Amino acid sequence: MATIRNVGMGMASSSTSSSSNGGGAAKAKADLIYRMDDFPDNVNGASIMAREDGIITISEDRTVRIWQKRDNGKFWPSICQYMPHPATAFAFNQETRKLFVGTESGSITEFVISNDSNRLTQLKDYSGHNKRITALHFALECEWLLSCSRDKTFRWYCSESGRLLGSFTLSAWITALQFDFPSKCAFVGDFSGAISVLRLSESGHQLVTTIRGHASSIRSLAWDSKRQQLFSGGFDSTVVVWDIGGKEGIAYELQAHTGKVTSLHYAASTQQLFSAGEDGIVAIWNMDIKRNETPSWVESDNCQQCNKPFFWNFRMMFDTKVFTLFLSITVSIPTRKVCYRRWANVNIIAGMSFIVTANECLCSVG
Question: Model-level pTM?
């Protein structure tokens, strides 16, 4: 199934329930314009053809379809191209009308769509991967095709000749990809939750840094080239915004999903970020709103306000002759660890003078 939705400016919305994250954004539901149900298997990707009423879809049934809007307002396929294996990723460039399709087997095929969108002509194949293609990116400015795969390799090719320019190998599946042309930097997300930042050239690459912030696998990346911000969506139900251009390591989270975040898209013209997940939610975020950085977690063996030892800090309890028993769970909050629930001091070691008076920690968790 594929859907087309219309969203007004100034909203943070969901296909099932409204949601927002700070900044006083209005809540509203996106308007459903059209729904396509004629798919016998899972849809692995979809994209609107911006300059015409067309949609490109790829599916597990091995098809690449070009849909055109007819006079009756419905979309019908004008092209249905069968691939040798299920189509798993694609990249489309509107100016050249080139379409790159990656498959389950690791093969990549380049097509060109005719001006009337009724013919798909195969131009060349790219080899090198041997497992599922997870993401493709075509950079017209330098004529590079970038690809990543479950074979744990990231590769970039010259799209004019089809020649392999370089490759980079990780220890986990590579699941997401973005590219910034001015700096020639590629952002590569993997199954471990890390994002590798690489500076590319035709003769090799340089690993700039590796950033971490997700608790599990990264599934999708998006890039704001103007503000130099990277967006990552993961299986931990979180969207993280990374301020790459600021060079200060600032990042903050966007919370709306209750399931895995599977897709991200940034619309530069409206400064909106779209996120979709397995929970059925499509969230739209206004990115021109200032948000606070997500605080970092700290480690401590005692309350950082009242200095009482936590229940695992046996050494401090013995030294102070106070045994701290939390009657319910002790929680950590960002930037500090403080007592959150009732505690009691009890005499637990015979012959030792321990305080036994029940008490209540008055620490604030604000």
Answer: 0.75
